[in-house]
Design brief:
Helix content is 66%, strand content 7%. It is mainly alpha-helical. It has 2 domains: 71 residues, no CATH class; 228 residues, MetI-like fold (Orthogonal Bundle), CATH 1.10.3720. The strands form 2 sheets. A 3-stranded antiparallel sheet has the order 1-3-2. A hairpin with a 6-residue loop joins strand 4 and strand 5. It is elongated, with a radius of gyration of 26 Å. The protein starts with 5 loop residues before the first helix and ends in a 6-residue tail after the last helix. The mean pLDDT is 80.
Length: 323
C-alpha cells in the first residue's frame, strides 16, 4: 500500500485501540471499499440517510425531516468529511482558501482583459504595420510559455534579483502576521507577481481574439456608413466597433475564469499564496485524502457553475443564441 494508513494519520499520537476503532467507525474504514464509496456519496448528497442511533451528529448541518426506526432522513449541506491532519472540516478549510483563489483569478482576468483588449485594438488599427507585427510576436511568446514557468521566472527576477528595486518578495500571501505575531496585515503587493504570471498567457489569447474580432467588424457596411457620415474615429470605435467586437471577447473571458481557478494551483504553490491550489497540493503531499477529494470536487463544481453562467451571458449578448 503506497499511501499511509488514514486511521494512523487521524489518530496521531493517540493511536490506542479505542481511538482507532472510533475513527474507523466514523469514516467507515472498517467496511468494504464499495460501502465506503456509497457512504461518501451519502455524505455529499443534500438528502441523506443516517443511523437513528447517532443522536448528535455534529458534522451534519441541516434539518432532520423524517424520523425512522433505523435511519433518519436529512436535508443538509454536503459533508466533505474532516481532515486527517488537523481534524478540521474540509468544507471549512476550502471556504477559508476560496477567497484567495477568487481574488487571484479576478485580478489576473482584469489585467488580461485590459492589456489584451488594448493590444488587440492597436494591432487591428495598425494591420500589417510594425506595431501589429511586434505585438503579435509578444502575444505568441506569451501563449507559448506555461503559467508555472512564467511564475518561476517572475519570482526569480522580480522577487529575488530585482527585489531591492521592486520591493516585491518571491513568496507571500494576501494576509500576513505582524512582527508580534498577533494581528493580520493586508499585503497587496504580494498579489502583483502571481496575478501577472497567471495573466500572461491570457493576455496573448485576448490580444489575438480582439484583433481578429475588430478586423472583422471594421469591414462591415455599417462602419463604412458611419465613416461616410463624418463621425470621428473615436466615435466609431466607441459606438460601433467595441459594441460589436467585444461580444466574443466577453464570452471568452467568462469561460477563462473557470480555467484560471484550476490554473492557479501551481501559481499559488510557487508563490506560497493561500488558496485552493496551495491547500490541495499540500494535502496531496501530506496524503490528506479528504482534503484532496474535497478540493477536486469543489473545483469541478466551480467549473460547472461558471460554464452554465457563460451560456446565459452568451445568450444575453447574442439574441440569436437560445438556451
Amino acid at each position: 500500500m503506497l499511501l499511509p494508513d488514514p486511521t494512523t494519520m487521524a489518530a496521531g499520537q493517540r493511536s490506542d485501540v479505542l481511538s482507532t476503532e472510533a475513527i474507523n467507525k466514523e469514516f467507515g474504514l472498517d467496511k468494504p471499499a464499495a460501502v465506503q464509496y456509497l457512504l461518501y456519496l451519502n455524505d455529499l448528497s443534500p438528502i441523506s440517510y443516517y443511523p437513528t442511533s447517532v443522536k448528535s451528529f455534529k458534522s451534519i448541518k441541516g434539518i432532520k425531516i423524517i424520523n425512522g426506526k433505523l435511519h433518519d432522513l436529512w436535508i443538509k449541506t454536503p459533508y466533505l468529511r474532516r481532515s486527517f491532519q488537523n481534524k478540521k472540516r474540509v468544507g471549512e478549510i476550502l471556504s477559508e482558501a476560496l477567497p484567495g483563489t477568487l481574488l487571484l483569478a479576478v485580478s489576473s482576468l482584469t489585467i488580461a482583459a485590459i492589456l489584451g483588449i488594448i493590444m488587440g485594438m492597436i494591432c487591428a488599427f495598425n494591420q500589417d504595420k510594425w506595431p501589429d507585427r511586434l505585438l503579435m510576436i509578444i502575444s505568441n511568446i506569451g501563449i507559448s510559455f506555461p503559467s508555472f514557468l512564467v511564475a518561476i521566472l517572475f519570482a526569480w527576477v522580480f522577487g529575488y534579483l530585482l527585489s531591492a528595486y521592486t520591493g516585491l518578495s518571491m513568496t507571500g500571501s494576501m494576509r500576513s502576521l505582524d512582527a508580534l505575531g498577533e494581528n493580520y496585515a493586508i499585503e497587496w503587493r504580494n498579489l502583483i507577481l502571481p496575478s501577472a504570471a497567471l495573466s500572461i498567457r491570457i493576455i496573448g489569447i485576448i490580444c489575438q481574439l480582439t484583433r481578429s474580432s475588430v478586423l472583422s467588424v471594421i469591414k462591415q457596411e455599417y462602419i463604412l456608413t458611419a465613416r461616410s457620415k463624418g463621425l470621428s474615429k473615436y466615435q466609431i470605435i466607441k459606438n460601433h466597433v467595441l459594441k460589436n467586437a467585444l461580444n466574443p471577447i466577453v464570452t471568452a473571458l467568462s469561460g477563462w475564469f473557470a480555467s484560471l481557478l484550476a490554473g492557479a494551483f501551481f501559481i499559488e504553490y510557487i508563490f506560497n499564496w493561500k488558496g485552493l491550489g496551495k491547500v490541495t497540493i499540500e494535502a496531496v503531499q501530506n496524503s490528506d485524502i479528504p482534503v484532496v477529494m474535497g478540493g477536486i470536487i469543489f473545483t469541478a463544481c466551480i467549473f460547472i457553475v461558471v460554464n452554465i453562467l457563460v451560456d446565459f451571458i452568451y445568450a444575453a449578448l447574442d439574441p440569436r443564441v437560445q438556451i
